[in-house]
Amino acid sequence: MKIGIIGAGATGLTAAFELSEKGHQVKVYERDAFMGGHASTFQIGNHPLERGYHHWFTSDIDILRLMKDIGLENRVMWLPSKVGTLYEGKVYDFVTPLDILKFRPLGFSDRIRLGLSALKIRKIPDWKEVESVTAVDWLQENLKNSVYQSFWEPMLRGKFGDEHYKDIGMAWLWGKMNTRFTSRNSWMSKEMLGYPSGSFGEIFDELGKKIIDNGGEIHLTTSVTKIVQSEEKLRGLIIDSNPTVEEFDAVIASIPSHIFSRLADGLSSEYRGQLGSVTYMSAILMILVLREPLSEMYWLNVADRTIPFVGVIEHTNLLGADHYDGNHIVYLSNYLTNRNPLYELNEEELLRSYQPHLKTINPNFNESWIKDVHYHKIDYAQPIIGTNYSENLPSHYTGIEHLYLANTTQIYPEDRGTNYSVRMGRSVANLVLENLCSP
């Protein structure tokens, strides 16, 4: 069978690998000049680094299985993570329950309640039990208000902004917390995170090589301009400005919903409505290459909304600065809508707005520490997952025979990530074959 795939991110490449391994002819089209999507890499000196910070949890079995399938299982490193929270100008450890008991912004009884709140979320047996309620409503109902206001509200507000934090479903928070719980051997143990020793770029390079070795094709800097159908059945794709239709037996589109909606004219109004009902936020990432470490934390949550970014991920506190010639790599992370004034700032303007707040993290920070700056804006990075999301979850089946959609809006209740993108790529590849081979 001849199968077209739009998008060379983790989902598209996994689907292409799965199909090509089974002897099918695949062609992958990617409008960017690189593979990997949100987990793609660029160069820091002579070393690859992800445009957006990435790691794995010990429960991420799908990406680990893929690593084994492509012969890279020995490239997986498991590293201890150190998590902290920045609140009212002070960094607090947030690794074990004992750390929570030292969170002095709360009274002692409220610190116990904060720790118990995580346990209470952990004990929710099924996300469906809380799908109809927002995270804000559940937290306010189940926690003392001081605990909610000092920790949980700043986290949600920082992640989703004033516009959307009250809309987030509790099932999303359950999925987020459940993933972190399963990356610990016990409640008291430290979190272990996975990272490929050759960066995520090595994975995508090897996937691309395997696909090509299997007879497939990968076309970078190549856009699909139209999905062509005949009546309610897929016919093929129009590539770039070439008016000739490239015919396919099936097509998998691993692209954002609004782009897919523009390419496919024959979608039903109901399916198009499902696609349009999902709002995205953009990931705004400022990457600093520093002479000195900013903190001791790998992952620093910013629970202070006077600070204009939500997370500080010091990559070299996980992997080690020796991997980058002694440089310290820090991501300043934000999730914004295009209505936020920070969204419009260029690299220089954004750095100027962020820089004064770095002294809050480390009073010794000096501008001279900055050796280099990299800025990446990743649009359509974070879907807004509201209540009862499963009722409007777009199906992989698009209503056009042999045309399938696979993107981050269909990952639920877990948050998007390479593990779930790989899982989805395999799943949709199997759907394609089931339908093509059925009588």
Report how far apart the termini are: 15 Å
Helix content percent band? 25-40%
Oligomer: single chain
* Widest β-sheet, arrangement of strands: 8-7-16-17-18-15-19
Whole-angstrom Rg: 22 Å
Brief rundown of the structure:
With 439 residues, the protein is α/β, with parallel strands linked by helices.
Description:
This protein is α/β, with parallel strands linked by helices. A hairpin with a 2-residue loop joins strand 11 and strand 12. Helix 1 runs parallel beside helix 8, helix 4 packs across helix 6 and helix 5 crosses helix 7.
Q: Keywords for this structure?
A:
439 residues, alpha/beta, 7-stranded mixed sheet, 5-stranded parallel sheet, 12 helices, 25% strand, globular
Task: Lay out the secondary structure.
Layout: E1 2-6, H1 10-21, E2 25-29, E3 41-44, E4 47-50, E5 56-57, H2 61-69, E6 76-80, E7 83-87, E8 90-93, H3 97-100, H4 108-122, H5 135-142, H6 145-164, H7 170-181, E9 192-196, H8 199-213, E10 217-219, E11 224-230, E12 233-239, E13 245-247, E14 250-253, H9 257-263, H10 269-276, E15 280-290, E16 299-302, E17 311-314, E18 328-336, H11 347-361, E19 370-383, E20 403-405, H12 418-437
Parallel strand pairs: 1-2, 1-14, 2-10, 7-16, 14-20
Antiparallel strand pairs: 3-4, 5-9, 6-9, 7-8, 11-12, 12-13, 15-18, 15-19, 16-17, 17-18
Helix pairs in contact: 1-8, 1-12, 2-12, 4-6, 5-7
